[in-house]
Structures are given as C-alpha cells and as structure tokens.
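Quick one:
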Amino acid sequence: MLSEAFAEKDAKAELELRNTADLADGIRNLLLRCVKVKSGQKLLLVGEAGESVYYDAELCVAVKQAADQLGAVTKVLFAEPVVDAMSVSSQVSREMSLSDAVVFFSRLGDQTRFMPSPGEGKKVMCYTLTKAHLAAPFGTLDHEKMTQMLQLLETSIHSASHYQIKTLDGTDLSGEIISDGDRKPSKKFHVDLFPVMIFEAINCRNISGSLTISKFITSTSTRAYDDSVLMIDSPVSARVENSIITSMNGDRQTTCSIVQQLERAAQLSGGDPYALHSWHAGINPGTFFAGNPFDDLEYWGTVAYGSPRHTHIHAAGLDPGDVAYFLMDATIRIDDELFWHDGRFVFLDRPDVKSLFTPKERQVLNSRYRLDIGM
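Output:
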C-alpha cells in the first residue's frame, strides 16, 4: 500500500486551488520564458473553432491581453482542426508566414509537430486545455528550468545504447538507441511544447519483445480520421520482432478488430500496418485531467500524455504513424538505469536534476508527486 506521501492527488482539488494571480503567472511563464515575446513582435494566437473544440476560447483572449501589455502586436485567429498538416487553410498559413511567433491553443499545432510549417518564427504548441491548467503548477513552473531538465534527460537518452520498457500487464520490449547516418536516435519536433511534458520520441530501432495491447488504441494526432479510437475488450499479446508486430495472441474477435484498425490507419499513408515507429513517456508529474477520459479519449490524451503514468508508442503506416498504443505505469530503463518506475519519473530524484529547482519547485517535481489523470 502506498504511503500518504505517494497517494495520488485529486485533479478536481487541484482546480479549486487556482486563482487569477496564478493564471497571470502561467501566462507570463508562457510569454516570457517560452515564447520570449518582445515589444513590437508580431504574435499570432491560433484557437479552435467548430462544434467539438478541445481548448477554452478564453485562453486566447487572456493571453492576448497580456501580450498586448508587453508591447506585442497580437492577432487571434480561430480555425477548425483539419485532417492533417497539409490541409491547413490558406488563411492560417498566410498569418503564420507573417508572424514572428505563433502559439497554438489548437490541435493544429499538434499536427505540425513532426513537419515544417509556414513562417520562420517560433511556434509553440500549448497543452493547457483550460485556464485552470495554465494557472496550475502544470503551467506556472519555470519553463526555462523545465527545459534544462528536459535537456539533461535527452542528453542521457542520446548517449545511451539501449532501453527496456516493462509493464505489469505483460509488455516487455527492448530496443537500441543508435544514430547512424541520416537515422537519428529520436524524432525532432518542429514546434516547442508548453509546458514541458514530453521528450523527443525515441525511434524504435530493432525493438523486440512482447507488447500488451489493452484498454484502447488511439490516433497519434498527426492525422485526423473517423473512429480513431478502438476500445479493447480483452488484452491481446503481440509479438514484436525488429520493430514489426509478427503475431498476436488473444480473443479472436478483439484481435480481428485490432488488425482492421491497424490496416485502416496505415492506408492513410500507405505504410506497414504492423510497424512500430517511435515512443515516449510523460515527464511532467503536474499533469492532471478532471473528468471521465472515456467521454473522449482523444481529448483526454491531448493533455494526459504528459503524465509519467502515460507511455505511448507511435505505430502503423509511415513514420510517425497513425496509431498510438497506450501503456500505463511503465517501468523504463535506459542503459540499465531506472528512469521511470511503475509510472513514476524517478529521473527527477537525481541530484543533478534536483539542483535545478528550488525547494518549493521540488515539492511538485519529484517521483512521489502526481495528480489524477482519470485512469
């Protein structure tokens, strides 16, 4: 049984602690430490339009007010999410080209993570779905310090040679971390992420072992398609050899449903339905979600993937893939060093990482602290 210090905190209680001052801190953190807004700079804020929006529209309004006070020339543009990055409207593309910096409070930013987009300015994908997220430690923790932590992590990853991912429900995968020629050890983002919640996905080089497919699979948010969420009624064990699923063992009907989903998703790009492309795990213990994830798992995943409890693998089709396998509470070793233990980011407890933060910041940034993500 976990001690009280390890008990999972209630996300709803986290929401109730926030106030206007906290929101202002989060906005300043975004604008000054992440975007690095300067007076006279042309700043574009892209929000979501349409029937089923993920982001609170008032976020753009609040951030615009603060940016204007800093002397930025700020424009807000609301646009509907599209099928993929190639389908971004001419209006959005034109405004991005004219801007010195772009902040997405929209899934449009997610769709441009792995590919270049119009304009030479800085682009930031913001995962604060609500004002409460921006006002919580999730959004207020010093972005520059969090970036330093991320750099330490990625340096450790890039200097390593192998890793192992295990879960209590049977996943046991091992792979290599190699940079040879044009093939890099990880997939570079073309947008900055706010807040810091994930590292560049590690390429699945020679990954082999067993993968338990359970609960659900979703899209990778790279491309939108109908019925992108598949619920898994009973766990299926997949055999992986050299980054390809070679067999599945489980309930026949469930296995057939998975195969159909993989093949349908792979048709979007024409790649291998059974390929595993890359993976990453959450690194922000302040990540939280208040609500029922199963009301909309794609919405839930937009923020929940920053939690250390959440590991996912990009798969099916051409890299970066169009299916995400979800792993819960994984234990991950990199070069035999423990980085995550049962969904807790123990890397934060290393002395060189702890030294980055103040005692107050370390109350949130440690392996014992985590908030409810609804699972």
